[in-house]
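User: I'm writing a short report section on ligand binding and want a predicted complex to refer to. Could you take this sequence and 2-acetamido-2-deoxy-beta-D-glucopyranose and write out the structure as tokens? A short remark afterwards would be nice.
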Amino acid sequence: MSRRAASVLFLAFGLVFQLSCGTEVKVLKEDKLCLYANLMLNFSVFYEVAEKKIETAVFKLPDEVTTEGSECQATTSMLKIHFGKGHSWSVNFTASGKDYQADLVTFSYNLSDSTFFPNSVSNETASVTVKPEITNVGVDTCYSCNSKDLIQIDSLNMTLWNVLIQAFITNGSKSENVTSCAADVPATTVSPTTVPTTTNTTTAAPVTNTTTAAPVTNTTTPAPQPTPTPTPALPTPTTGKYSIKPDENSTACLLVNFGLRIGFKQGEKYQEMNLESNETRVTGWCGVNSSELLLASDSMTFRFSFTNDMKKFRLHALNVTVNTSSGVAFSQVNASLALWEATVGSSYMCNKELNQTITDQLSLFTFDLQVQPFAVKKGLFSTAEECQADVESFLVPIAVGVALLVLILIVLLAYFIGRKRNMATSYESLS
Ligand SMILES: *[C@@H]1O[C@H](CO)[C@@H](O)[C@H](O)[C@H]1NC(C)=O
Ligand SMILES: *[C@@H]1O[C@H](CO)[C@@H](O)[C@H](O)[C@H]1NC(C)=O
Ligand SMILES: *[C@@H]1O[C@H](CO)[C@@H](O)[C@H](O)[C@H]1NC(C)=O
Ligand SMILES: *[C@@H]1O[C@H](CO)[C@@H](O)[C@H](O)[C@H]1NC(C)=O
Ligand SMILES: *[C@@H]1O[C@H](CO)[C@@H](O)[C@H](O)[C@H]1NC(C)=O
Ligand SMILES: *[C@@H]1O[C@H](CO)[C@@H](O)[C@H](O)[C@H]1NC(C)=O
Ligand SMILES: *[C@@H]1O[C@H](CO)[C@@H](O)[C@H](O)[C@H]1NC(C)=O
Ligand SMILES: *[C@@H]1O[C@H](CO)[C@@H](O)[C@H](O)[C@H]1NC(C)=O
Ligand SMILES: *[C@@H]1O[C@H](CO)[C@@H](O)[C@H](O)[C@H]1NC(C)=O
Ligand SMILES: *[C@@H]1O[C@H](CO)[C@@H](O)[C@H](O)[C@H]1NC(C)=O
Ligand SMILES: *[C@@H]1O[C@H](CO)[C@@H](O)[C@H](O)[C@H]1NC(C)=O
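Assistant: Sure. The structure tokens for the complex follow:
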């Protein structure tokens, strides 16, 4: 009797334990299981609150989620998890031959959700995309990783652990066989399925094993460091002059001159591309508090969003999409920037090459930059506020000149004092 009670209690605990163990999602196709996931996921996100202060939002993937938009095809599938007020986390998988892999993880978060982002300045939905290290998973096996996997991107961290995922389920039920991640496999044995996994140290997901005492033993795969292939230096991009008019009979309300280059990482490959200003289509609009400039060429599109708080304006958000030669569109967004800041009514200028990190995988380079997104008068730039680099390059020659002048004065002074003394002494000796 009491034994029975104990076992019931045990079962109940087991059930509770199961439920709180992770977020479980099942994707069905024609009423049959085709994609399964059970995982634990924590987010830590930097976001902007008033006065350019940065707060950190920390939250976990809740148990209550939905999976609209998830889908299973023969060689591609997508797991899309929606939670809270308009947040989503998705992974897409591709299968080829005996293996499948996760290609991209996309996390979109709704900054107007005050439960996660109280007092957020932005009300937009930001989104980041990273390439996870889930590769060479055997078909008909689950990918399993109990170790913590920290995915670090500029303004946010995602921690994944106790992960069990199977994509491309064929017979309607989850496989009992697993492909374990490198971090779970003891250092001495070689993972059976891992064909030399190209450990991707650059993009994201440095697998952290928190329990290892000696960090030295953590390097399980002795894969050689990928040497970045030297790319031939690009010529300086041509300076494009872009403007937006509120209507055809008005003068410009937004002006931007710059040469533009991006540097981006896809997997281990770093590439740089210039925007050809003569092949760029320009659209946009001007508002009181925000303005937007869209530049599109055949190979890339940029969406620059400017905001102002009545005193200062800044580049607040940037969305860059690159149509790479492989046909995979690569998109990076950062909606909590504060770049190119200057007083409303003036313009921001930086003639020097400016290198700005937009996300972990994207840098923006500008040349001969001058921008005025608000309060443009007569279609012309107003007085410029120059960037630090320009001010320095302007001040250095002045400083050198001033120093030289002072030196000359000192020498002259010394000469005249010396001469006066000499004359005085020679008079003395004469008399
Ligand atoms: C995940 O976040 C929760 C709170 O949101 C915290 O209690 C827990 O310690 C976090 N776990 C990890 C592994 O970061
Ligand atoms: C974002 O959050 C706000 C506030 O909770 C909500 O009104 C809005 O619908 C959400 N956006 C999306 C896309 O769900
Ligand atoms: C976001 O805020 C701006 C002004 O701050 C407002 O015009 C816009 O409608 C808001 N968008 C949403 C989705 O709430
Ligand atoms: C960390 O690594 C050690 C040895 O490499 C292993 O024994 C241990 O189980 C790992 N911890 C986790 C949480 O995976
Ligand atoms: C992400 O993790 C790193 C290292 O633990 C930490 O320095 C950084 O502040 C974290 N970022 C966020 C957004 O929590
Ligand atoms: C697990 O793998 C073994 C060997 O590859 C195979 O014989 C077995 O059928 C697999 N089990 C399942 C449930 O797929
Ligand atoms: C622009 O000016 C022309 C001639 O003055 C006029 O015909 C046209 O309607 C105007 N367009 C707009 C949008 O005001
Ligand atoms: C744009 O300029 C480049 C070189 O400056 C030239 O090769 C290209 O043909 C031009 N394209 C167009 C559409 O004019
Ligand atoms: C711009 O911001 C000011 C102050 O925050 C506000 O009073 C005004 O309504 C805003 N205008 C628009 C068009 O959003
Ligand atoms: C970024 O731009 C691309 C292409 O224009 C678009 O598909 C995507 O939704 C945009 N992302 C955000 C967060 O606005
Ligand atoms: C741009 O800046 C980043 C971060 O400071 C740096 O790692 C990178 O090497 C710079 N790129 C160039 C081409 O200067």
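A remark for your report: The chain has a mean pLDDT of 82. The domain at 3-184 is CATH 2.40.160.110 (Porin).
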